[in-house]
Amino acid sequence: MSDRETQPVERQLPTDEARDLLALVRDIAQREIAPKAAEEEDAGRFPREVFTLLSEAGLLGLPYDPEHGGGEQPYEVYLQVLEELAAARLTVGLGVSVHTLASYALATHGTKQQQVEHLPAMLGGGLLGAYCLSEPSSGSDAASLRTRAVRDGDDWVLSGTKAWITHGGIADFYTVMARTGADGPRGITAFLVPGDAEGLSAALPEKKMGLKGSPTAQVHLDGVRVPDERRIGEEGQGFGIALSALDSGRLGIAACAIGVAQAALDQAVAYATERRQFGHPIADFQGLRFLLADMATQIEAGRALYLAAARLKDAGRPFVKQAAMAKLHCTDTAMRVTVDAVQVLGGYGYTADFPAERYMREAKVLQIVEGTNQIQRMVIARHLAGPESR
């Protein structure tokens, strides 16, 4: 690859503390994550030791209350941390985003006693979380979920199967949405389920085209008994909690997408300035220069969009529409940019000798997870034109 050094992204950060934080994250990414990313992804290895390091560094609870081990960072900062991690390896960036999503219900809707008892270990004690909403027969139509929780004295007994669970089988805790009442969204309740609960098991991880180091598996709950103290929020409040968590989680996916796109652009620029044809670096040819310019512009637009949504959230203002826009635009951008990066590298881009092909395979899933991009368009349209007439 080229001797040309990749320049760090120019970031607008609100404080000196945030600038120091991003410098720390970039150092960890360059020393501990990026050098092993290609080999470990190819082997399908999950880097649990990296998540232990991130936990020890206080990076697994950045947007949450410091009283319980969080970092009290605004989303504007937290999302840029995710972007840096995802640029080094999407398995790590996405994993931190999912862990933050899994912690959301308890951090925002748990009782004071629940938060004191559980959050310190979740946010800074080395634990890893998973978020369980989707099922084999309910993906985009999440309100039709069938996993059921039945009251038995002071306990709840959970039975059912969750699908497409990131960290399924390796998580230390699962935030599980289960039906406690009638059909529809008002009959769903949230529970905090320990990863070692009796009756909880995971299927073999899915065989995926990308993100091979991040386990995605069905999670089976066969009469899993949890005390009522692990119910999060009121009965029937779970679906609202789940959607609120996803609104924030979609911003995490948007940031991860821009991280992957930035990594692909950096590689394309480095290759184009080194590779010579017809006596010149291929970066001298206008067609390729324009392609690189378009890639960079799309990335900057995506970054601005997710940061604008984050600033709305940080200010306590409505941001649901903007989060959907950010998730839609940033993940579509990642797909376009990674495809173009492969094109810049030509035949080399199609080989595993360069990470461009991995970036392209990984970008695809970001258009699907935490609400497909078709669902994002529905959310945006409802804010513009109101609910559909049916």
Structural commentary:
51% of the residues lie in helices and 14% in strands. It has ten helices and ten strands. It has helices at 16-43, 48-56, 75-88, 90-109, 112-124, 238-274, 286-314, 320-345, 356-366, 373-385, and strands at residues 129-132, 148-152, 155-166, 173-179, 188-194, 200-202, 216-227, 231-232, 276-277, 280-281. The strands form three sheets. The protein has a four-stranded mixed β-sheet with strand order 1-4-5-8. It has a four-stranded antiparallel β-sheet with strand order 2-3-7-6, with no helix packed on it. Strand 4 (173-179) and strand 5 form a beta hairpin. It is globular.
Separation of the first and last Cα atoms: 56 Å
Radius of gyration: 21 Å
Estimate what percentage of residues fall within beta strands.
5-15%
How many individual helices?
10
* Mean pLDDT, all residues: 95
Gross geometry:
globular
How would you write the strand order of the largest sheet?
A: 1-4-5-8
Helical/strand content category: alpha+beta
Order of helices and strands: HHHHHEEEEEEEEHEEHHHH
Tell me how many strands there are. Answer: 10
Helix content: 40-55%
